[in-house]
Amino acid sequence: MRVLGLETTCDETAAAVVSLRADGRGEIEANEVLSQIAEHSAYGGVVPEIAARAHVEVIDRLVGRAMDRAGIGFADLDGIAAAAGPGLIGGVLIGLTTAKGLSLVTGKPLLAVNHLEGHALTARLTDGIGFPYLLLLASGGHTQLVAVRGVGDYVRLGTTVDDAIGEAFDKVAKLLGLGYPGGPEVEREAGRGDPERFDLPRPMLGRPEPNFSLSGLKTALRMEAERIAPLTQTDIADLCASFQAAVVDVVVDRTRVALRGFRDIAGPPAALVVAGGVAANQTIRRGLERLAGEAGLRMLAPPLPLCGDNGAIIAWAGLERLR
Ligand code: KG4
Ligand code: ZN
Predict the structure, then answer these.
(1) Cβ(243) – ligand 1 distance below 6 Å
(2) Which residues is 138 bridged to in the sheet?
(3) pLDDT band at 6; cut points 50, 70, 90
(4) What is the value of pTM for the model shown?
(5) Nearest 5 degrees, angle CA 93-CA 161-CA 169?
């Protein structure tokens, strides 16, 4: 079984070919990703109109490149998948319409994939784990704790009531004059800063529902920054380290609460899985590894190139649906 997957919901144009191996895991035969970061960075965020135009300019060439890299023709595919949302509508239309066109011409089934399902099933592509598992999905647009019970069988245990975690990293970066996307920049600064210098709040800590709130933390950081301005390099590093430490505490606490509720609705979890762009953060990963260790669970995080948006996770989700 082999599926072509297209991803165009945000600022990556991506096409990939994934096939099913005999051991149940996926094999990535091609994974072409074109980032638009350079086109958006002057604006400090993704500009939907620029994104849509950039997708439409490269999508067909990128599909060709993925097919060449995999060394296959359209006849060798069993399905054509595209992320059908959620996302910026201009981008979604381009990926989905391209997939529909290819599906019509080749007669192969079209697989409309929810972008979040792509992130949710990545650990099965890479590690072949069984259901059920607890997923922390943390990206620029979403922060959710989900009980993954099967393909298409998801129970959301918690979510953010305001900003997504990645969004909070991006906003903090912007506030401190760092580049976009903010996550990697804040993590780099945090690496040389003092996480205890600023006593920032841990919103939602100890609450019985595993929800998140990030906007108050971001505001507290802004007030500290304004209080001590003008900022030195050390101030920026210390602010980033203190912010990241607060986020890790919140993430670990919220995930611990979700693990408690998990058993009642899904039985014993096979693993704790983290996915989405924020899963690239090493300090957050270490916090979750500690938590998984306490609970006697495996912690799985996709390899870095599969944390962010890409076509392989969409192709794999399409393949799981087709199967
Ligand atoms: O999954 P993704 O590539 O796109 C969305 O679907 O949003 O996630 C991108 C988000 C951005 O907000 C980015 O700042 C964040 O993931 N991110 C990070 C790190 N790398 C990327 N956040 C914290 N630490 C990182 N190392
Ligand atoms: Zn994503």
Answers:
(1) no
(2) 143
(3) very high
(4) 0.94
(5) 75
Query: Is residue 44 scored above 80 in pLDDT?
Result: no
Give whole-number Cα distances, 23 to 20, 132, 269, in Å: 8, 19, 21
* 6 vs 39, higher pLDDT: 6
CA distance linking residue 275 with residue 131, whole number of Å: 16
Q: How far is the CA of 28 from the centre of ligand 2 (A)?
A: 18
Q: How far does residue 178's CA lie from ligand 1's centre (Å)?
A: 15
Burial 162-198 (b: 16+ CB within 10 A, else e): ebbbbbbbbbbbeebebebbbbbbbbebbeebebebb
